[in-house]
Design a protein that fits this description.
- The protein is α/β, with parallel strands linked by helices.
- 39% of the residues lie in helices and 20% in strands.
- The chain has helices at 15-18, 29-43, 62-68, 85-88, 105-111, 124-137, 154-165, 176-183, and strands spanning 7-11, 47-52, 94-97, 116-122, 141-150, 171-174.
- A six-stranded parallel β-sheet has the order 3-2-1-4-5-6.
- Helix 6 (124-137) packs parallel to helix 7 (154-165).
Length: 184
């Protein structure tokens, strides 16, 4: 297989979104994980995982957010913030951020000169969407792999994909099979 182009960025495949008892459980996390597993071999070392982390002290409107979700105010090494076991073992590059959007200086540096970001992960309607729009605004080609993502629910997932696809040609929504077919 020819390798895919760009940087595969796997958004927030963490226990807090995977575990069914979590207040932030993503119902189709397992399906998104399957899509991510299918993508990984095509990108080799050009994979970056991200993690959402709570800030030490929320500021601004984040204070009200964490008043609503106090369980999440845990340190970066807390079990809920860990990548799920299957991804923790393969994650060589990890970018942490206390924001929904993961288009941070660290991720921009990892993307380097390729200027193509392939996004997968959770949640489509939050962190994936926020990352996609910010990267597109920075002039990066963004490809969102719909069946390697999962939303808070099916309706929110579909709506977020629709909104991102409105940004064409800056953001393009595709599937795992279509993306892998492009690589030959």
């Amino acid at each position: 297989m020819t390798s895919a182009t760009g940087l595969l960025t796997v958004i927030d495949m963490q226990r807090v979104f995977a575990e069914p008892e979590s207040p932030w459980a993503t119902p189709r996390f397992a399906e998104a994980a399957e899509g991510v597993r299918r993508l990984l071999p095509a990108f080799g070392d050009r994979v970056t995982f991200t993690r959402f982390l709570a800030p030490d002290r929320p500021t601004g409107t984040w204070r009200a957010y964490y008043e609503q979700w106090p369980f999440a105010l845990q340190p970066p090494d807390a079990p809920l913030w860990r990548l799920t076991d299957e991804f923790a073992t393969v994650a060589r590059h990890v970018v942490d951020a206390p924001t929904f959007g993961k288009w941070t200086p660290g991720l921009a540096q990892r993307a380097g000169t390729e200027r193509r970001l392939v996004l997968a992960g959770v949640s489509t309607d939050c962190c994936v969407l926020s990352t996609a729009v910010a990267a597109a605004d920075a002039g990066v080609e963004v490809v969102v792999v719909s069946d390697a993502c999962a939303g808070a629910d099916d309706d929110s997932h579909a709506k977020a994909l629709h909104v991102m696809d409105l940004y064409r040609p800056l953001i393009r929504v595709t599937t795992v099979a279509e993306l892998l077919a492009e690589t030959g």
